[in-house]
Amino acid sequence: MTIEALLQKQRRYFESGITRPYAFRKSALTRLHDAIIKNRKQIEEALWQDLGKAGVESYMTEIGIVLDEIRVTCRNLKRWMTCQKAPVSMAQFPAKNRVLTEPYGVVLLMAPWNYPFQLCLMPLIGALAAGNCCVIKPSAYAPAVSNLVASLLGDCFPEGYVAVVQGGREENQTLLEQRFDYIFFTGGTEVGKVVLEKAARYVTPVTLELGGKSPCIVDRTADIKRAAKRIVFGKFLNCGQTCVAPDYVLVQEDRMGELLDGMARYIHKFFGPCPLDREEYPRIINEKHYDRLCGLMREGKTAIGGQRRRETLQIAPTVITHVNGNSSIMREEIFGPLLPVIPYHSLESAIRFIKRREKPLALYLFTESDSAKKRVLSQISFGGGCINDTILHLATSHMGFGGVGMSGMGAYHGKKSFDTFTHYKGVMEKSRHLDVPLRYHPYTAWKRWMLQLFLR
Predict the structure, then answer these.
(1) What is the pLDDT of residues 129-170, one digit of tens each?
(2) Contact at 8 Å (CB) between 314 and 281?
(3) Listed residue (99, 98, 103, 124) closest to 35, CA to CA
(4) CB 284 within 8 A of CB 314
(5) Which distant-in-sequence residues (6+ apart) come within 8 Å of 396 by Cβ?
(6) What's the average model confidence in pLDDT over 432-450?
(7) Structural domains in the chain?
(8) Cβ of 155: how many Cβ atoms within 10 Å?
(9) Which terminus of the chain faces fewer neighbouring Cβ atoms within 10 Å, N or C?
(10) Residue 2: exposed, middle, or buried by beta-carbon count in 10 A (0-12, 13-18, 19+)?
């Protein structure tokens, strides 16, 4: 079936009205939940094939977070769908105002390769909860997961409701030439610009979940041992191939040696003396990205790690010093297990360093100072982040997750996912029994006086 024919099929399915009732939406989510549990081992195996992810990491960062999102959505869906009353203004009196929820229609979900299962399914949950039909485009760079997602969703749902389009650049381009009612894209900034440009043709609303250089600040008051431990966790999770991983660390200059010693200890504790020999240590997704990362390693000084193995596409957790803001490694998102550490003199200089760059997707601050927290949070714009931790701000369905500026637009997770894929339709129902004459011609001085009295 061609992509054009698939969209026509989904349009017919959506226009039948079958996706709108609460019972249908909840049933679809429950079916998806049960299918994930049933196929858990196969999902873990596919993630191992594509990225070398260990089972525990696969469940923690992909499967478990998706299951939790479905449970939260099912518990709250009826309330989210409920028509809401709205106040009536003096200009509308007498009347009733209400806000109705309605699905957009047929939506396109484009997923990346770094968390190929989670980032396919998380937006899908919101789209189905909102009553839409969905076309999913997984990444061709993660073929095992792409095949599994196609099989799993094909067993759960008819093609007119949820369909998976596999393939590479050609399929992406063909999909973006079609008219969708909403596009949800997760991936790099440059491709995100292309998606936005294509969406403009039909004025299609878009959510862009992008990335950027997410900073981590460690000030003089920080618990350095805790900071080192949590930075190592957040940075080297999934071999650094995480959009919200700390991209670089700014540390107060008189604590830099202590932080480097702490990170060295935790890298050794987590990954052993030779991380590349550990079966559960992930790999870089492909040769192209491996070569790019090797090129970035040539700058600065390798303070920790640096080992690499081309035949397995692995690079050990690596900490790099003696870099500056103009280094190549500081001009692009690293997206790998390389972590530049840069000293700073004052918090003001660290804030200026960050603000000279594009707004990041995430920011992390390690401090015990309330004034430092206030200054950083009030002066730097970023998508979301943590104080005294990394990564975990996105591991909840109770806060929205998304970027700002070049790191993206729109948000999802929990209620935010439902909102993203829902059009909120305001409706006023006017009373038939009283018709205030103020709005009608002729516009007399008396009417003007009355309007000024009631509408000021």
Answers:
(1) 999 999 999 999 999 999 999 999 999 999 999 999 999 999
(2) yes
(3) 124
(4) yes
(5) 413, 414
(6) 83
(7) 3-210+405-424 (3.40.605.10), 215-394 (3.40.309.10)
(8) 11
(9) C
(10) exposed
- The Cα 40–Cα 34 span in angstroms is 10
Sign for the CA dihedral angle at 408, 414, 420, 426 comes to negative
**Distance of alpha carbon 180 from alpha carbon 109, whole angstroms:** 10
Q: 44 catalytic, yes or no?
A: no
SS3 readout for the chain: CCHHHHHHHHHHHHHCCCCCCHHHHHHHHHHHHHHHHHCHHHHHHHHHHHHCCCHHHHHHHHHHHHHHHHHHHHHHHHHHHCCEEECCCCCCCCEEEEEEEEECCEEEEECCCCCCCHHHHHHHHHHHHCCCEEEEECCCCCHHHHHHHHHHHHHHCCCCCEEECCCCHHHHHHHHCCCCCEEEEECCHHHHHHHHHHHHCCCCCEEEECCCCCEEEECCCCCHHHHHHHHHHHHHHHHHCCCCCCCEEEEEHHHHHHHHHHHHHHHHHHHCCCHHHCCCCCCCCCHHHHHHHHHHCCCCEEEECCCEEHHHCEECCEEEECCCCCCHHHCCCCCCCEEEEEEECCHHHHHHHHHCCCCCCEEEEECCCHHHHHHHHHHCCCCEEEECCCCHHHCCCCCCECCCHHHEECCECCHHHHHHCEEEEEEEEECCCCCCHHHCCCCCHHHHHHHHHHCC
Using one digit for the tens of pLDDT, what is the confidence trace for 346-362? 999 999 999 999 999 99
CA angle 53, 360, 138 (to 5 degrees): 40
Provide the whole-model pTM.
Answer: 0.94
Which candidate in 120, 133, 243, 386 is catalytic?
A: 243
Contact 173, 110 (CB under 8 A): no
Would you call 239 a catalytic residue per the annotation?
A: no
Alpha-carbon distance 208 to 401, whole Å?
11
* Catalytic residue from among 57, 62, 69, 209: 209
